[in-house]
Amino acid sequence: MLRRSSRFRRTAGTIAVLASVALMAGACAGQDSASAGGGSQSDINIGAWMPLTGALAAYGVPEKAGADAYFKMLNAQGGINGRKIRWTVKDNAYDPQQTVQIARELVGQDKVVAIVDANGTAQGEAAFPFVLQQSKVPILNELGGSESWYDPPRPGLFGTQTLYEDQAAAVATWAVQDGARKILVVHSDPAAFVNVAEQVEPVAKKTDPSVEVDRLPVKFQTTDYTPVVSKVKADKPDAVILVLTSPEAAAYLKEAKLQGLSPATYGYAPVAAESTITLAKDAAEGLKAVQLVKAPTDPDPAVKEFRTAMAKYEPGQPAGFIALWAWSNAKVFAQIAKTVKGPVTSDALIKAYEKASAVDPGVSPVMKFGPSSHLGTRSVQRVVVKDGVWTSVGDFYTPPARG
């Protein structure tokens, strides 16, 4: 009996030890799962893809710098509810196939809870099936996008960029309000540019039915704008709207000055870039455009904070429109993530975005989201080149509804 009792005690003791080990293992596994799902008490893992090399690195590099500056500043201040942001950015060279591979790495290896402040319309769409549908990881505040992304809203996809179509509507309204009665839209010939250019006429005529609107398509990446400006001159418009890339817009402006063409000139957000002024020089003076953020030289305190952080955390990187736009997206994410109670998981972020009805980053429009509204804004900022720099004009402006 004594031996049996001893064996029983030993067996019971062994079971107790194994139970303790199992509980500890379970706790560790729970911690690992929380970390993989973004619920770590010390870090919030997010990621992005950007063109850091190649022809479009001029967009990706400053975008990374702007968001990096904000996240570094935020972490120095204690992070989000005591948790530091760990933002992993990988170079996709603006290639959709590379983006899909990067998405798998970010979700599978880096265990991100969201893709934040990434870059590219085609690139994002290539990753949607794996990220949004299979992995249920949200894609937040991506640079790019189209109306089809948000109408109807896609689960887990939330945007902060005013659609290009609404940018065209804003420019059209501005030109008519300035007194234009004959508008010529000069645009590149790919379908994406044509679609934007086509939005000008209906909005302009809604503002004033007597306005005439014509379009002049130009072969994409044209460098010789001599014949283009000659055609514009012959048409005699009192306003020209440019739906071109920044280098193309600069080429147009330089040739227009050479030929003495002087109607008011407007552009959508891609035209409102520092590179337009750098390339066009004094020919850009007076150019009007819309942007997604205030001018980086604006005296607004929120913009000053951006310039200070860029100088401290990203010295040597230009504090321009693209960096400021990325800064704004990082700030929108942080403000919404701060409302999450408990672990910051993919699902928690999606629910937080759906409840975010008034997010004010200061440097861009107030963002309003909801369960059936995943695009935060339709508003833009008017900017004008004055004394060789982009300058904000008034406050954010929402164009008339299209259609």
If classified by CATH, what would the architecture of the largest domain be?
3-Layer(aba) Sandwich
| Structural class assignment | alpha/beta
What is the fold named in CATH at topology level of the largest domain?
A: Rossmann fold
The neighbouring-strand order within the major sheet is 7-6-8-9-10-11-12
SSE order, as H and E? HEHEHEHEHEHEHHEHEHEHEHHHEE
Q: If you average the pLDDT, what whole number results?
A: 90
The CATH superfamily label of the largest domain reads: Response regulator
CATH class type of the largest domain: Alpha Beta
The residue fraction in helices comes out at: 40-55%
Number of domains: 2
**Alpha carbon gap, first and last residue:** 92 Å
Gross geometry: globular
Tell me the number of strands: 12
Largest sheet: 7 strands, mixed
Report the portion of residues in β strands: 15-25%
Low-confidence stretches: 1-39
Number of helices: 14
The Rg value, from CA coordinates, equals 26 Å
